[in-house]
Amino acid sequence: MENLIEIKNLTKKYGDLKAVDNISLSVEEGQLFGLLGPNGSGKTTMIKLMTGQLKPTEGNINVMGTDVLAHSVEVRELVGIIPEQETPPSFLTAEEYLHFVANIRKLDEIEARCNKWFDLLDFRNEKEVLCKDLSRGTRQKIMFAQAFIHEPKLAFIDEPLINLDPVIQKKVKDYLAEFVKNKGTIFLSTHVLQIAEEICTKIGIIYKGNIIHEGSIKELQEKNQHLEDFFLKLVKEKNK
Ligand SMILES: Nc1ncnc2c1ncn2[C@@H]1O[C@H](COP(=O)(O)OP(=O)(O)O)[C@@H](O)[C@H]1O
Ligand SMILES: [Mg+2]
């Protein structure tokens, strides 16, 4: 399988702090890769680097065969992104915002694409409400829809599912599972281990800017090891 993400010796410093410390990592097509780590471990920084929103201090990032540093706009055209804690513009309705995104992405059949998402995540009744008046959960649904509206092959999602009710969480999880089954690729970050355990095929554990473990979820399950126990043990060892 082809690597859709290839990172080599990536470092990002904020002043003296190494938020990302010499990370090399690759993600194959068809993976649902979960980057796990406690708050402040470097997950959001990694996603911003991979999507060209931040410039690395050192290292190389290639996404879908494109050098991110040289061609960040092209990369953002290709992929879908759900940034951490971001909400759609307060002054637009869900429908207006999705049309806006679809127009920027120069998509066809905009109406049909939007309808698919209204139905899939069940917010058709709220499509004409200004985003400022919507619940956090509905705003997160809209962010989900905007990331996938152009049917990307690869999407980056930073701490997904957190404000969604269990019914919608299930729908999103099913969508992601189907997406990777059809050769889509997801890179998600989360500090909620349960989410990772349920949906990821591969995980990387990041701690203080370093990847301290990489492997498949299946591997842990075969060893009868719970991700949470494994994770806590690793972090404790690193803290010694
Ligand atoms: N713009 C910034 N300026 C300075 N420090 C930052 C900035 N963004 C993040 N950091 C620091 O970098 C580290 C990693 O942050 P982040 O990538 O947001 O972690 P995570 O997403 O895993 O919670 C943290 O120590 C954080 O305080
Ligand atoms: Mg974060």
Task: Describe what this molecule looks like in 3D.
The chain has 240 residues and is an alpha/beta fold. It contains nine helices and ten strands. The chain has a six-stranded mixed sheet, sandwiched between helices. Strands 2-1-4-5 form a four-stranded antiparallel sheet, with helices on one face. β1 (3-14) and β2 (17-28) form a beta hairpin. The longest helix is centred in the last third of the chain and has 16 residues, at 166-181. The radius of gyration is 18 Å and the shape is globular. It starts with a strand and ends with a helix. The structure holds adenosine-5'-diphosphate (ADP) and magnesium ion.
Q: Which tags fit this structure?
A:
binds magnesium ion; single chain; 240 residues; binds adenosine-5'-diphosphate; six-stranded mixed β-sheet; globular; four-stranded antiparallel β-sheet; 9 helices; alpha/beta; 10 strands
